[in-house]
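Structural prep section.
Before we set up the soaks we want a predicted structure of the protein with iron/sulfur cluster in place, mainly to decide which crystallisation condition to try first. Input record follows.
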Amino acid sequence: MNGKISRGCHKVHQSNFPTYFQMIKNLAMTTKDFVKDDFRLSDMTLWEERYTVCKRCEQFRNSRCISCGCFMKIKTAINASKCPLDKWNDIQLTLKD
Ligand code: SF4
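Run finished without errors. Recording the tokens verbatim:
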């Protein structure tokens, strides 16, 4: 085992950021989802709740996520983006109720 865990489309490193190649793939997937979602941004409540979860997450380093390599202030603002570890699922369910 080389310290990577595959989670769907994302390669997750235990302590380091993904490779540049993997980060480009992750960025491309987020961009594709953003386009498919008609470029919608998160509303302020969703953005704040997502970013709060990220700030408390063990994957959060200097405003970035070490699972996907993304800058979380930006990724959380994209409505269609997803947490690679599915930690935002409860937020989205709460807002739909
Ligand atoms: S996107 Fe998910 S895994 Fe990454 S820092 Fe945020 S909550 Fe943690």
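Observations: The beta strands are 4-7, 10-13, 60-61, 64-65.
Flagged for discussion at group meeting.
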